[in-house]
Amino acid sequence: MSTAPLIITCLNTYDTVVATLDDVAWPPRGKTLLNLSTGTPPQAEALDRWAADRSVLFLDGAILAYPADIGEPHCQLLISGPTRVWTQNRDVIMDLGGSTKHITETIVGANVMDVGVIGAFYISALTAFIESAAYVTDYGISTESLLEVSKPVLRLLDDTVAQAVSAIGEQDYRTDQATLGVYAEAVRTFSAEISNRGNRSFMVAAAAASLSAAEEAGLGALGIFSVHQIARR
User: Fold this and answer.
1) Which letter does DSSP use for residue 122 in this model?
2) Residues 84 and 135 both lie in one domain
3) Residue 179 gets which letter from DSSP?
4) Are 49 and 140 contained in the same domain?
5) Are residues 47 and 80 in the same domain?
6) Same structural domain for residues 87 and 153?
7) Which Pfam families did the record assign (predicted)?
8) In terms of residue numbers, what domain contains 96?
9) Is there a contact between 136 and 202 (Cβ–Cβ < 8 Å)?
10) pLDDT for the residue 131
11) Per-residue CA distances from 102 to 60, 110, 177, 184, 218 (Å)
């Protein structure tokens, strides 16, 4: 470590990263630290201050892949921090994943995307699918049928996410399709059915609560993307 120009950390917490580096007898000045531990934007800011106090160049990152994907062309790491530091270390970092991207000079950027895209979206969606599978298979429907029906829905979700990004970017939530109120009524019905069957329905119940809150805020006649208005601070 004493001769390495780039030091990469990937530990269970940011506190563990700091404790580990504080316990190592090596001159940090001028080295680059790339942290790939899972964390939050405030934790990235705190580690950035720790690095600056020790004259360490700092990049923060998030791994949007499974361990088995590391080093593969499709593996994506998100890197945030100074462009100059990224450029100096790009070739080595790209060896970790061929789809790695430097997304912003703002040190919190990678963690913002990790919390938002992986936490709030991917993990939530995956959990919702697992809960839906429990409900469907409890009715005796095969997992093969579940997959067959789910695949077109995933393609629909891909298109709908693009529409959501456009609507949010333009702040235009009007629709000539199903309104938020229609979605809200449907998801309340779905949530009640799953619960009445005795299945756990945490994710669909959360969706029902979110859409109902948007409806109560007077957004029922707009499109479902208008939930964005009540989700913000």
Assistant:
1) I
2) no
3) -
4) no
5) yes
6) no
7) RedAm-like_C
8) 6-107
9) no
10) 97
11) 10, 9, 37, 38, 40
Answering whether pTM is above 0.90, one says yes
* Sheet strands side by side (includes 77-80): 6-9, 32-35, 57-63, 77-80, 101-104
Q: How do the pLDDT tens digits run along the chain, 233 residues long?
A: 557 899 999 999 999 999 999 888 766 778 999 999 999 999 999 999 999 999 999 999 999 999 999 999 999 999 999 999 999 999 999 999 999 999 999 999 999 999 999 999 999 999 999 999 999 999 999 999 999 999 999 999 999 999 999 999 999 999 999 999 999 999 999 999 999 999 988 999 999 999 999 999 999 999 999 999 999 97
Q: Could you tell me the two tokens for 163?
A: 């529409």
Alpha-carbon dihedral 120, 123, 127, 129, rounded to 10 degrees: 100
How many Å apart are CA 65 and CA 134, to the nearest integer?
A: 26
Query: Could you tell me if 105 and 184 are in contact, meaning their C-beta atoms sit under 8 angstroms apart?
Result: no
- Amino acid (1-letter code) at residue 28: P
Q: How far apart are CA 200 and CA 79, in angstroms?
A: 37
Task: Specify the amino acid at residue 70.
Answer: I
In a domain, 82, yes or no: yes
Tokens of 225: 């993307």
Residues in the chain: 233
128 to 13, 67, 153, 180, 214: CA distances (angstroms) = 27, 23, 13, 20, 20
